[in-house]
Design brief:
Elements: E1 2-6, E2 15-16, E3 34-40, H1 48-53, H2 57-65, H3 69-90, E4 100-101, E5 107-108, E6 116-123, E7 126-133, E8 142-144, H4 154-161, H5 164-172, H6 175-195, E9 211-216
Parallel strand pairs: 2-9
Antiparallel strand pairs: 1-8, 1-9, 3-7, 4-5, 6-7
Helix pairs in contact: 2-3, 5-6
Length: 217
């Protein structure tokens, strides 16, 4: 898993181990802090009917369009969890929170509301939400997570997607470590693209400062 914040960029930042704990209600966040939340999206999470009731019209419409029930239920629980988490900061009922959307579809708290930035990621039964205080380039945050599993042609994917320093770091690692390093680089790339909402295949603006990287397990 990787979280991106503005700061100095490193090809392979160190790993941080997360000790999960229940967050306070309500919650507050100060400038410079980063909060990371985990959501249960399987059957042990919020009841699916209650979760659906917390979603906005756009989210409900997307959920209804999903044919695969397991994917749909995970989506609904993840986005209901996002509503509940943001409600802790905004002091509003979860079902009342609505979003503005950027050109590539990244959701945000509407302009004029609380100064809060966030990002959601999901993979399998795991969903994570990163939250930071403020809005704009210095506060934007992106998060991505992946299950580490065998993958063919990681060398070819790395050559295509990663910067040269990252590719060389993967190639220089012992063979049994390369798949983990690949996923660390991949989640960093995804989180970077999500931080400013530009999408995975669009380059960062030339004048933009690269975000800092925090890798977690």
């Amino acid at each position: 898993m990787s979280v991106q914040r503005q700061g100095d960029n490193e090809p392979m930042a160190p790993l941080e181990t997360i000790q999960w704990a229940a967050g306070p209600l309500p919650n507050a966040i100060r400038r410079g802090e980063l909060h990371l939340w985990r959501i249960r999206t399987n059957a042990s999470g919020i009841h699916i009917t209650e979760a659906m009731s917390l979603l906005g019209e756009r989210q409900q419409a997307r959920a209804v369009s999903m044919r695969h029930q397991a994917y749909r239920d995970r989506y609904v629980r993840a986005h209901a969890g996002l509503q509940q988490i943001l409600a802790r900061y905004l002091g509003e009922p979860p079902q009342s929170i609505r979003f503005a959307y950027g050109p590539a579809g990244k959701p945000a708290i509407p302009s004029g509301s609380a100064a809060l930035s966030f990002n959601l990621t999901t993979t399998g039964d795991l969903a994570l939400v990163a939250v930071s205080a403020g809005v704009g380039a210095d506060a934007e945050v992106g998060v991505d997570c992946e299950w580490i599993r065998p993958r063919h042609s990681i060398a070819a994917v790395a050559e295509r997607m990663f910067e040269r320093a990252v590719v060389e770091a993967i190639q220089a690692a012992p063979e049994h470590e390369r798949i983990e390093r690949f996923y660390r680089a991949w989640t960093a790339l995804e989180a970077d693209a999500k931080a400013d909402g530009r999408g995975l295949f669009r380059p960062r603006a030339a004048a933009a400062r690269p975000p800092g990287i925090l890798h977690c397990i």
